[in-house]
Every structure is written in structure tokens, then in C-alpha cells.
Amino acid sequence: MTGIRFGFMVATLAAIAATQANAAEACTETSEGRRFQCGEWHVGRDIDEMTDAINWTLMTYVPNAGATDTWPSLSFFCRNEELMLLVAPGTYVFAPYELTLRIDAAKALTLPYQGAPGTAAVIRGKAVKALTKQMTAGQLARARLNTIAGQQTFTFELNGLADALALTPCKP
């Protein structure tokens, strides 16, 4: 059942990416010359009927039309009073990697994930819930994904993350 649930989640993210791709725009180059951003983040909600209609808070990166880059999709959802984070890596992600959720310099949480590229993973914990509950509506949050080896680092600034999480309070 767990595999079905996670498979459904990844399929949902893929469907969102396929249907919400926007018009092509010039990519912002990094100092290394890599394409840094060729799309936009979409924040929304979905309901998984297979898990008793739990509200899922979704964040997925939607590449612009024609862009070849794929970036990680981040999905937050609540289960058993824990905020769980599902990461579907993109082509620029190489395992092992770690994800840092940061509100500001004083509030950050780093979560290691020893997974394989191209597979979905779930990182969970009450510490994640405690961190996100400190966020206020409209506050800027940053999700930073980087390889442990330090070869690549991507930082995503997500306006509206707190508002999206507020729509789905964690309840048992």
C-alpha cells in the first residue's frame, strides 16, 4: 500500500508538470554556466482518496516549454502528526544528497537522504513539523538541495510555502 501511495504521488506530480508547463523563457545562468532556472514553482493542493482523503500540499517545479532540465519535485503532506516530505529527484540530482529547509539563518533543518537518482524518497519527522509551524503567512522559505559531495547546490526560494502548509494542518 505504501508503494502504491508513493507511486500515486509521483504520478500526480508528473501530471501537474505535464499540464502546467508555461511558455519558454530565457534561462538564468549560474556562475558555472549551468542553467539555473528554466521554469517556475507551482504550489497547490490535492486529495489522495487512497489515504482517507488526506490533503496533500504539493510543490512541484514546472519547466518551461522546450526546456530539457528537470528539477526535484517537493511534496509535503501530513500523516500521523508528522509532516512528511517526498522528494522526486530531477536529472541534476545525484545521490547521496541532503535537503535543507530554511526559514532564516536561525531556523534551519538539514535532512540527509541516501537514495538513488530518479527515485522518490520520503523524509519525515516531528522536527520538520516543528520547524514549519514557526513560519508565518507570507514568510519567505528556502528549500536547499545539494549533494553531500558538494558537486552541485540548488537553492529554491518559495514564496507562499507557509500559506500552502497552513491549508493542511497536521492532525492524527
Description:
This protein has 172 residues and is an alpha+beta fold. The chain is 19% helix and 42% strand. It has a five-stranded antiparallel beta sheet with strand order 3-4-5-6-9. A four-stranded antiparallel beta sheet has the order 8-7-10-11, covered by helices on one side. The chain is globular and about 45 Å long. Residues 1-23 form the signal peptide.
What is the average per-residue confidence, as pLDDT, rounded to a whole number?
47
Task: Give the distance, in angstroms, between the N- and C-terminal Cα atoms.
Answer: 19 Å
Tally of separate domains = 1
Radius of gyration: 15 Å
Question: Which class best fits the helix and strand makeup?
Answer: alpha+beta
Classify the oligomer. Answer: single chain
Protein name: Invasion associated locus B family protein
Keywords: Signal
Organism: Pannonibacter tanglangensis
InterPro entries: IalB_sf (IPR038696)
